[in-house]
Amino acid sequence: MTSEELNEKLREIENRGAYSISELDRHGKMLPYVGWYWRDVDFATPAIRLGDCGSFKGFMEDNKWDHIEWSPSAEESADIVRLVHAVAEKPGPESLRALYNYIQGLKPPEDVVKEHAEFEARYSDMLNIPTIGF
Protein backbone atom coordinates (compact mmCIF):
# COMPACT_ATOMS: atom_id res chain seq x y z
CA MET A 1 0.00 0.00 0.00
CA THR A 2 1.16 3.53 -0.73
CA SER A 3 1.36 6.17 1.97
CA GLU A 4 -1.82 7.76 0.57
CA GLU A 5 -3.67 4.43 0.68
CA LEU A 6 -2.50 3.79 4.24
CA ASN A 7 -3.72 7.21 5.36
CA GLU A 8 -7.07 6.67 3.67
CA LYS A 9 -7.48 3.29 5.37
CA LEU A 10 -6.39 4.62 8.80
CA ARG A 11 -8.75 7.58 8.53
CA GLU A 12 -11.57 5.18 7.66
CA ILE A 13 -10.73 2.94 10.65
CA GLU A 14 -10.53 5.94 12.99
CA ASN A 15 -13.80 7.45 11.74
CA ARG A 16 -15.66 4.14 11.88
CA GLY A 17 -14.98 3.83 15.62
CA ALA A 18 -15.53 0.07 15.70
CA TYR A 19 -12.61 -0.81 17.96
CA SER A 20 -11.26 0.38 21.26
CA ILE A 21 -7.91 0.84 22.97
CA SER A 22 -8.78 1.48 26.60
CA GLU A 23 -5.95 4.00 27.12
CA LEU A 24 -7.24 6.06 24.19
CA ASP A 25 -10.97 5.80 24.99
CA ARG A 26 -11.03 9.00 27.02
CA HIS A 27 -9.44 10.79 24.07
CA GLY A 28 -12.01 9.42 21.62
CA LYS A 29 -9.35 7.70 19.50
CA MET A 30 -8.52 4.25 18.23
CA LEU A 31 -5.17 5.18 16.71
CA PRO A 32 -2.38 6.88 18.65
CA TYR A 33 -2.23 10.38 17.18
CA VAL A 34 -1.97 13.79 18.80
CA GLY A 35 -4.62 16.16 17.52
CA TRP A 36 -8.33 16.47 17.02
CA TYR A 37 -8.42 14.35 13.86
CA TRP A 38 -6.18 12.08 11.79
CA ARG A 39 -3.70 14.06 9.70
CA ASP A 40 -1.86 12.39 6.84
CA VAL A 41 1.47 10.83 7.80
CA ASP A 42 4.24 10.32 5.24
CA PHE A 43 4.86 6.61 5.71
CA ALA A 44 7.08 6.50 2.60
CA THR A 45 10.01 8.22 4.34
CA PRO A 46 11.69 7.45 7.65
CA ALA A 47 10.81 10.95 8.90
CA ILE A 48 7.66 9.96 10.79
CA ARG A 49 6.89 12.56 13.44
CA LEU A 50 5.86 11.44 16.90
CA GLY A 51 4.77 13.51 19.86
CA ASP A 52 4.33 12.99 23.58
CA CYS A 53 1.28 14.83 24.88
CA GLY A 54 1.76 13.63 28.44
CA SER A 55 -1.00 11.03 28.55
CA PHE A 56 0.20 9.05 25.50
CA LYS A 57 2.59 9.15 22.55
CA GLY A 58 1.42 9.16 18.96
CA PHE A 59 1.72 10.44 15.44
CA MET A 60 1.89 14.22 15.45
CA GLU A 61 1.71 16.02 12.13
CA ASP A 62 0.75 19.38 13.61
CA ASN A 63 2.31 20.42 16.90
CA LYS A 64 0.06 23.30 17.93
CA TRP A 65 0.51 22.58 21.61
CA ASP A 66 4.31 22.58 21.89
CA HIS A 67 4.51 18.94 22.97
CA ILE A 68 7.77 17.05 22.83
CA GLU A 69 8.23 16.06 19.19
CA TRP A 70 10.75 13.78 17.50
CA SER A 71 11.35 11.44 14.58
CA PRO A 72 12.07 7.84 15.50
CA SER A 73 15.15 6.08 14.14
CA ALA A 74 15.04 4.48 10.68
CA GLU A 75 14.67 1.06 12.32
CA GLU A 76 11.85 2.25 14.59
CA SER A 77 10.14 3.94 11.64
CA ALA A 78 10.32 0.68 9.66
CA ASP A 79 8.73 -1.17 12.59
CA ILE A 80 5.98 1.45 12.81
CA VAL A 81 5.26 1.20 9.08
CA ARG A 82 5.09 -2.61 9.37
CA LEU A 83 2.59 -2.28 12.24
CA VAL A 84 0.56 0.34 10.35
CA HIS A 85 0.32 -2.05 7.39
CA ALA A 86 -0.95 -4.74 9.77
CA VAL A 87 -3.64 -2.36 11.09
CA ALA A 88 -4.66 -1.34 7.57
CA GLU A 89 -4.78 -4.92 6.28
CA LYS A 90 -6.49 -6.48 9.29
CA PRO A 91 -7.98 -3.83 11.57
CA GLY A 92 -8.95 -5.06 14.99
CA PRO A 93 -8.03 -4.97 18.65
CA GLU A 94 -4.83 -7.03 18.24
CA SER A 95 -3.26 -4.97 15.45
CA LEU A 96 -4.34 -1.67 17.04
CA ARG A 97 -2.93 -2.75 20.41
CA ALA A 98 0.39 -3.81 18.83
CA LEU A 99 0.80 -0.40 17.17
CA TYR A 100 -0.21 1.47 20.32
CA ASN A 101 2.10 -0.55 22.58
CA TYR A 102 5.06 -0.16 20.23
CA ILE A 103 4.74 3.63 20.02
CA GLN A 104 4.25 3.94 23.80
CA GLY A 105 7.54 2.09 24.29
CA LEU A 106 9.52 4.61 22.24
CA LYS A 107 11.39 7.42 23.95
CA PRO A 108 12.35 10.78 22.48
CA PRO A 109 16.10 11.44 22.33
CA GLU A 110 17.52 13.02 25.50
CA ASP A 111 18.60 16.17 23.63
CA VAL A 112 15.01 16.72 22.46
CA VAL A 113 13.68 16.31 26.00
CA LYS A 114 16.36 18.67 27.37
CA GLU A 115 15.72 21.30 24.69
CA HIS A 116 11.97 21.14 25.34
CA ALA A 117 12.46 21.56 29.11
CA GLU A 118 14.77 24.53 28.55
CA PHE A 119 12.23 26.15 26.23
CA GLU A 120 9.43 25.70 28.75
CA ALA A 121 11.60 27.09 31.56
CA ARG A 122 12.62 30.10 29.47
CA TYR A 123 9.09 30.99 28.43
CA SER A 124 7.08 29.76 31.40
CA ASP A 125 6.35 33.31 32.57
CA MET A 126 4.89 34.13 29.17
CA LEU A 127 2.74 31.01 29.25
CA ASN A 128 1.18 32.02 32.59
CA ILE A 129 0.07 35.54 31.74
CA PRO A 130 -2.81 36.58 34.02
CA THR A 131 -6.01 37.58 32.28
CA ILE A 132 -8.20 40.55 33.13
CA GLY A 133 -11.68 39.48 34.16
CA PHE A 134 -14.69 41.46 32.98
Features:
134 residues, mainly alpha, single chain, 7% strand, globular
Question: What can be said about this structure in brief?
Answer:
The protein has five helices and three strands. By secondary structure, it is mainly alpha-helical.
In N-to-C order, the SSE pattern is HHEEEHHH
| N-to-C CA distance | 55 Å
User: Rg to the nearest angstrom?
Assistant: 16 Å
Tell me how many strands there are: 3
Q: How many individual helices?
A: 5
Q: What is the percent of helical residues?
A: 40-55%
Low-pLDDT segments: none
**What is the strand content?**
5-15%
Order of strands, main sheet, comes to: 2-1-3
**Overall SS class:** mainly alpha
What's the mean pLDDT score? 88
Task: Indicate the overall shape.
Answer: globular
Major sheet characteristics: 3 strands, antiparallel
